[in-house]
Amino acid sequence: MLIDCGAGGQWEPSLGHLDSAMAEAGIDPSSVGVVALTHTHLDHLNGLITRDGRVAFVNLSRIAIAHDAVAGFVDEPHLERFRHLLAPVRDGERLADHLVARSIPGHAPGHMAYVLDSGEDRVLFCGDVFHVPAEQFARPELTWGYDLDQSIARATRINLLREASKTQAWLAGAHMAKPGIGRVVEDGAGFALRSLA
Question: What is the pTM of this model?
Answer without folding.
Answer: 0.94
